[in-house]
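Hi Q.,

Before the meeting this afternoon, I wanted you to have the magnesium ion prediction in hand. No need to reply - just skim if you have a minute. The sequence and ligand are here:
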Amino acid sequence: MKVTRIRQDVAPISGAIANAYIDFSHMTASIVAVTVETGDGRRAVGFGFNSNGRYAQPGLLAERFIPRLLAAGELPAHPDGGFDPAAAWAAMMRNEKPGGHGERSVAVGVLDMALWDAAAKLAGKPLWRLLADRYHAGAADAAAWVYAAGGYYQPGKGTAGLVEEIRRYLDAGYRVVKIKIGGAPGTPLAEALREDLARIEAVLTVLGGDGSRLCVDANGRFDLPGALTYAAHLAPYRLRWFEEPLDPLDYAMHAVLAEHYEAPLATGENLFSLPDARNLIRHAGLRPDRDVLQFDPALCYGLVEYLRILEMLRAHGWSPRRCVPHGGHQFALHIAVGLGLGGNESYPEVFAPFGGFADDTPIRDGMVRLTETPGIGFEAKADLYALLRRLL
Ligand code: MG
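Predicted structure with the ligand bound:
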């Protein structure tokens, strides 16, 4: 088993949208194609890309991680006889010190996604089935719960435009939606709060007044007083969850907020390693009976590291059902189905062509059922595959 060829490129995923912290006018993504050969004449090409919100990593890929993978030579197989991305992962991370994860976790995650795609293709199985067989006693879910993430701040959109957007998600088969809060970058807090409460009220009207069908996401914008102010105003709505209220790395502030806000909190999309995730669980006061963990397998050094995070969660009394990864990509959808997570994010209208799932997997009543296509199935998502093909 050997990685014999890797090609990389950078693709734009820019858009005129903004959350409370950044706009996406210059957002990019790395894309890679990785060829794995088995030594007995079989080969597979796996594809990978980085999740939205972090920029492309061509330098780190070219200087460190691609050369190491190509120089690794013969890699030990998984005990089931198939290709084992964990062995490739160890080769990529040689000579990397612990801590200070930065965005090398993003570069490694791009390659990790492609390695898993190749591993499942070589096994002749969809990734969800390979994962269930290897790590979940063969037990995959029949479908994954997904919710529509949108509700960004966009010039000229207004509350009427937001309501139309939410209606489109419901028409497309979603039951639960998420909108941004905290104001477009630079908006004063009091003004943002006033505007956000009007947006929440308007969206709830479309959702039959049911707060459990609405999530709100502040993208880490608030300081503690700001988060507590918002929490006090959000509490009566009993929302599905209040996401990234605070700086994602300030665990003590989360612990204070969790004492004052009873409804579910969600965070984790900007924690990129097992030690960061473990510190969150140890110190942030999060509650295993309600809070939601959003570590993104594509951003946090890939699935090899994400498997370690799931193991750590189990040891701390957290069910994998509390995990609903960030990113809205097919990779995390397979992981959700194969490993029994709580579900997955979905971006019906943004981050094309990386957001969204295979063309033959419609959303029905908020659920997605995966197919038997070997690998992750990027080939079954026409707009994304058109982009990835240029690497071949
Ligand atoms: Mg978020």
